[in-house]
Amino acid sequence: MRLRSILFAALLLAPTAALAAPGIVTVSTGLRAGPGTGFPLVDRIPGGARVNIHGCLRGNAWCDVSFSDDRGWVSSQYLEYLYRNHYVYLPDYFDEIDVPVVPFVLTSYWSSYYAGRPWYHRHAYWNNYWTSHERFATRMTLDPGAARIGRAATRDAAIALERQGVRGKGAAAISGRDATTSRHDAAIATRDAAIARRDAAMARGDAAITKHDAAITKRDAAVTADRTRASRSERIAHERTNVQSRNPRDAQARMMHEQAASRAAVRAQPMARAHEAPRVSAAPAARPATPHVAQPNVSHGSPTNARAQMPAPRAAAPAMPHPGGGGAPHVNAAPRGGGAPAGGPGGGHQKH
Q1: Which value, in Å, is the radius of gyration of the alpha carbons in the chain?
Q2: Which of the 8 DSSP states describes residue 318?
Q3: What are the backbone angles phi and psi of residue 75, rounded to the nearest 5°?
């Protein structure tokens, strides 16, 4: 496979070596490892240095040249080409000179000239770079300063040729060159206008793409916010459902807790002691207790005896002191010997 690549490179480069033409570099420029300013720098060529031009890419924007012991690519806007015994500015004379068109195959080209370079081991990366930038290498873009210098050099070369005794040819060459230059300048102006329109269209397309991306970003943010709110609402509803489903059990547990607390409070109240019983009020009861009347004993004695067996009524109030002075208080009691109750008709003591 490597031998086949070498043979292919030799077949590509052999014709270009035979058709190499002398040239001059108008200003100091870099010798690149490929047709583009993005390729690695092989060497630096000073202004006025002589080179051999092996050919140019289709579109005539970059040319394959040799300088000293190096081989590489130089933009055609910095080159003069030997044509009819004098050097002419190459971009102005492409139509007349018919410069050979050569291809650029990075793998074979680098294997032939850059095998020992430090960036050779990345030839796969640079091959991909060439694939993506090949369309730019065919576009001619003139530097006004370089074009002015190259055209002045062409004019000076024609004047020098005329001074050597070929005045008629020199004048004709100058006239033809001027006409060609005028046509070329018009073509350049037309091409520059087309490039400007294309760049404006690309800028509008980029602005539209940026606007579309911003709209998509805004929409994604809105969708994310809606999803967040929906998720929060669903979580709240789920928690509310759980709380509602737990409420009956919580209410039952709360009621049982309150009942236990009330029973504990009742048990915690102090019990009244016997010697600390409350005193009875001196005022008569609102409704005296009715004494329990026992049934008369029909088997023994008379009704008198039955009444005598009845218990004495309970005291409704504490005994009042006798108005006569000291002594024990007289207790209102039922009469011993029958008759009406105390204080009624028929006898008995009245309450003082």
Answers
A1: 65
A2: P
A3: -65, 135
Residue type, 171: A
Q: How far apart are the first and last CA of the chain?
A: 151
Beta strands at 41-45 and 79-83: parallel, antiparallel or unpaired: unpaired
Longest dimension (CA), the chain: 194
pTM, whole model, 2 decimals?
Answer: 0.44
| The most confident of 91-95, 192-196, 268-272, by mean pLDDT | 91-95
Q: How far apart are CA 87 and CA 161, in angstroms?
A: 10
Residue 158 burial by CB count (10 A; 0-12/13-18/19+): exposed, middle or buried? buried
CA distance 107 to 103: 12
Bridge partners (DSSP) listed for residue 31: 43
DSSP 3-state of 43 = strand
Contact between 42 and 70 under an 8 Å Cβ cutoff? The reply is yes
- What CA–CA distance (Å, rounded) separates 127 from 32? 14
DSSP string covering 217-280: HHHHHHHHHHHHHHHHHHHHHHHHHHHHHHHHHHHHHHHHHHHHHHHHHHHHSPPPPGGGPPPP
Distance from C-alpha of 173 to C-alpha of 163, rounded to nearest angstrom: 13
Burial (0-12, 13-18, 19+ Cβ within 10 Å), 212 = exposed
Q: What is the mean pLDDT of the chain?
A: 73
Place of tokens 């916010």: 225
The answer to whether residues 23 and 52 touch, using CB atoms and an 8 Å cutoff, is yes
Q: Which helix (H) or strand (E) holds 147?
A: helix 144-163
Give pLDDT, residue 243.
Answer: 64
Of 136, 162, 171, the C-alpha closest to 37 is 136
Among 19-23, 257-261, 337-341, the least confident range: 337-341
Residue 297 Rama label (left phi>0; alpha psi -120 to 50; beta)? beta
Task: List the single range of 141-150, 233-242, 287-296 with lowest mean pLDDT.
Answer: 287-296
Torsion angles phi and psi, residue 53, rounded to 5: -95, 115
Q: With cut-offs at 50, 70 and 90, classify the pLDDT of residue 173.
A: low
Return d(Cα 283, Cα 193) in angstroms, integer: 129
CA distance 320 to 140: 143
Asked whether the beta carbons of 9 and 111 are under 8 A apart, the reply is yes
